[in-house]
């Protein structure tokens, strides 16, 4: 069994700070890019990965090994660096080198669900809701959105370091934020790119963190964004504004802003797709004889619509081009006018006499 404390040259009761200092000293000494021994560097890195993690260190102190995919866990463990996997004794395999917690599902979770350096710094996407009147879908509408979000720290300009202090490239990953990791399993050795344990995926180390953002490179603030709602937008449609979400950590990529649009119900018109439906009451005489009536439009104007002779309740008349613009903006939907023949509830004596005569005539 490897003695990780001996490899780092620290006592078993060493503090986390002592372990980190020992690792940095040895990593500088044995780093392959500086002419050091690659095998020794891998051993130092393996020891640091275990002892720098409280849970893994506790397992190592108790059992002499680490389970659940940690370094030094036999065939289930990670080893990282620039060379191939460490050799394992045959008796370790015979004694259960796969570890009591070996699970094939963990292998696939590790390799297909792991984080990379870019995952640690990117800003969060933001979704907001906007309500607009139906009329606004004709020509579009400018909306002003007020957001509480992460914004670039003005003191350090997003770097995360106190001004006039040094930002050093991480000596372990050479500024990449990630290192090669090798996992040995019953199926063989697998290699993946994982987060650098020294800089936690940042790629650099700060001499002094910014006093305002505490090294994050961003702070909570208020932002005002103007967006243009395009014509033809429909309820529950989502519009994307790239780069207007949360600012990423330490100049990481910004998240995106998503606007979910809701179109308010209209008092007169009902929207179905890009068509507008409206009900129009007409008199019995207009239905029987035919007529020309005024019909309102969504533009708050009126048009003349011809009612054919003999129109019945429920008849639908189509007016092309008076609906909602298609989202492509090339044309508009239709206005669908549904006719309702109104039966009068109160009649004068003259009207009653006229209707009696019509009844006698079979109408």
The value of Rg in angstroms is 36 Å
Number of strands: 16
Order of strands across the biggest sheet?
Answer: 11-12-16-15
Question: What is the averaged pLDDT score?
Answer: 83
| Helix-strand category | alpha+beta
Main sheet record: 4 strands, mixed
What separation lies between the terminal Cα atoms?
A: 107 Å
Chain oligomer state: single chain
Helix percentage range: 10-25%
**What's the helix count?**
9
Residues in β-strands, percent:
25-35%
Which sequence of SSEs, written as H and E, runs from N to C?
Answer: HHHHEHHEHEEEEEEEEEEHEEEEH
Shape: rod-shaped
Unreliable stretches (pLDDT < 50, length at least 5) are: 68-113
Description:
- The protein starts with a helix and ends with a helix.
- The relative contact order is 0.11.
- The protein has 363 residues and is an alpha+beta fold.
- The protein has nine helices and 16 strands.
- The strands form six sheets. Strands 11-12-16-15 form a four-stranded mixed sheet. The protein has a three-stranded antiparallel sheet with strand order 1-5-6. Strands 2-10-9 form a three-stranded mixed sheet, with no helix packed on it.
- Helix content is 22%, strand content 28%.
